[in-house]
Structure to design on (565 residues):
């Protein structure tokens, strides 16, 4: 092992300082790095800028815990259960404190990260013309096609300080395999100054290099690799575990009041030392229910020459 | 509605899924939004649109519906045996090219020209309510060949004018979309818990097209925050058939999405 492998606590301590901008939830509803978010809360991070296309409750948890001053996103809520209560309390009542919002659509957020990954200042698009998102977000500029004069929106690049990407497996140097829907993981990782990889398994270099097309991004971007089984729970990791839908329902109910959220936070984050302790808190039969009931192996590919 | 007799009783959500599915034409590329649209796509595939292809913005394309209930589009059953598992930007690129004929989206607030607000109730700098935001809905509304809105029919949600346009309908009517440079065709229908609304081809104002079984026109007008025009051909929505209900209940056996 060794290489870039560190514990979650070390990764957050070294690479997610107060005030930095963090991309999370890049794959959308799957592969959400909940374990990393919970460690940020335990380390009492402040003034973070959270970046992500949609956030299925992770951003809500960090907002409620007081770690966030700015959100750059297309959607913040609870996909299967409804609205995000802490997000609402923060925007509507400045509780726990004021939140700055930069509203995107999924496409413009992807374009902003793509521009960042290309080293381009902006990318033009035809989406969002005529909407109120254009006037509310200063990183959009209404402009036109230099050839035809047709209206276009210029979407300014986003270059996060750090991307936290959950994957199935990585080697110790951060060569990673990820499968399933990728959302904005690839361009988001490339646009960022550095990437923390959260892997269900740390495997040998040989395993990763046996299938280069499944590698998510260059390991030169990766600053840390954290081996964290169940690191994405309650979201899903293809081939490892399904989404714990009941957990999203429970969180939705618990976070309905500020006091209810604080109790939830104490039980599931603050009083839990690390992800190993979190997994121990989840009953074993619950974990077993989330494991795949059968294998669906892909056919082998031949890189022979 | 009671569900004692499985053959004849159904919920408003089951009617909505059925009517939404019927909007999907065979062979179309369909951008499938979260929640009820996930079921509508599965139903259309099993009924009349076996060659339709679903695009899911997390980065998936499917020509077969996932074999079991989806709570989110990124759930493992939707990934296994997808025809493409990729980056979001590739699917949004197809949408911007004009290759996607139909999009299905939900909404929190809608107005008489089909503009949707899923962002802020009240002024954005001091909102009385913060809604989750666009997700991919604004992109679908901007760029899809046409789109269909699926939502609760309540007076507070059906407003003369939305506070904030997240997903563009027909703006202030007429040729507004062309004037602002939008390429997609705009909303084709609003499918609600009470009715189906379509849009006047000239003025682009929403018109009551059909009312669901057991719902009165009077009630629909009461639940609409503007003086709703009624189509001369207004009729009762064709209810879900026994076969359609069986398929919906196969994919949503516990009624997670379809039983209130």
């Amino acid at each position: 092992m060794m290489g870039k492998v560190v514990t979650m606590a070390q990764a957050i301590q070294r690479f997610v300082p107060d005030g930095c901008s963090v991309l999370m939830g890049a794959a959308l509803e799957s592969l959400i790095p909940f374990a990393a978010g919970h460690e940020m809360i335990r380390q009492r991070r402040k003034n973070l800028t959270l970046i992500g296309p949609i956030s299925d409750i992770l951003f809500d948890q960090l907002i409620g815990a007081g770690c966030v001053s700015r959100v750059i996103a297309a959607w913040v809520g609870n996909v299967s259960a409804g609205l995000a209560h802490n997000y609402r309390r923060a925007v509507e009542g400045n509780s726990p404190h004021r939140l700055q919002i930069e509203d995107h659509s999924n496409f413009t957020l992807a374009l902003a990260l793509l521009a960042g990954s290309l080293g381009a200042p902006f990318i033009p698009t035809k989406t969002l013309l005529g909407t109120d998102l254009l006037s509310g977000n200063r990183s959009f500029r209404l402009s036109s096609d230099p050839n035809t004069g047709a209206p276009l929106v210029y979407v300014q690049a986003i270059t996060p300080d750090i991307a936290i990407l959950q994957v199935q497996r990585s080697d110790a140097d951060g060569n990673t395999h990820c499968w399933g829907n990728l959302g904005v993981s690839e361009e988001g990782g490339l646009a960022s100054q550095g990437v923390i990889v959260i892997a269900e398994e740390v495997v040998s270099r040989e395993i990763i290099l046996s299938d280069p097309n499944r590698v998510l991004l260059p390991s030169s971007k990766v600053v840390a690799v954290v081996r964290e089984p169940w690191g994405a729970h309650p979201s899903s990791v293809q081939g490892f575990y399904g989404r714990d839908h009941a957990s999203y329902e429970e969180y939705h109910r618990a976070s309905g009041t500020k006091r209810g959220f604080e109790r939830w936070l104490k039980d599931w984050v603050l009083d839990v030392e690390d992800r190993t302790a979190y997994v121990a808190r989840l009953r074993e039969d619950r974990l077993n229910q989330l494991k795949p009931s059968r294998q669906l192996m892909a056919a082998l590919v031949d890189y022979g020459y | 509605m009671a569900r004692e007799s499985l053959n004849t009783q159904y919920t408003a959500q089951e009617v909505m899924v059925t009517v939404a599915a019927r909007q999907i034409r065979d062979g179309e590329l369909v951008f499938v939004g979260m929640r009820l649209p996930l079921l509508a796509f599965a139903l259309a595939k099993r009924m009349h649109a076996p060659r339709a292809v679903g695009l899911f913005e997390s980065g998936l394309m499917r020509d077969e519906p996932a074999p079991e209930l989806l709570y989110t589009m990124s759930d493992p059953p939707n990934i296994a045996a997808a025809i493409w598992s990729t980056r979001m930007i590739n699917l949004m690129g197809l949408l911007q090219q004009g290759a996607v004929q139909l999009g299905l989206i939900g909404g929190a607030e809608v107005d008489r020209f089909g503009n949707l607000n899923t962002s802020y109730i009240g002024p954005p700098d001091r909102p009385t309510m913060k809604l989750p935001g666009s997700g991919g809905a604004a992109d679908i509304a901007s760029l899809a060949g046409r789109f269909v809105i699926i939502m609760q029919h309540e007076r507070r949600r059906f407003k003369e004018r939305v506070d904030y346009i997240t997903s563009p309908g027909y703006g202030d009517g007429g040729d507004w979309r062309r004037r602002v440079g939008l390429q997609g065709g705009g909303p084709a229908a609003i499918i609600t818990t009470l009715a189906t609304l379509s849009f006047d081809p000239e003025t682009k104002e929403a018109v009551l097209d059909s009312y669901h079984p057991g719902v009165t026109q009077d009630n629909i007008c009461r639940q609409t925050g503007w003086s709703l025009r009624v189509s001369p051909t207004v009729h009762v929505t064709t209810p879900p058939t026994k076969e359609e209900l069986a398929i919906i209940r196969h994919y949503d056996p516990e009624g997670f999405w379809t039983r209130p």
Q: What stands out?
A: Residues 8-106+159-290 of chain A form a domain with the Glutaconate Coenzyme A-transferase fold (CATH 3.40.1080.10). Chain A touches chain B through 59 residues (CB under 8 Å).
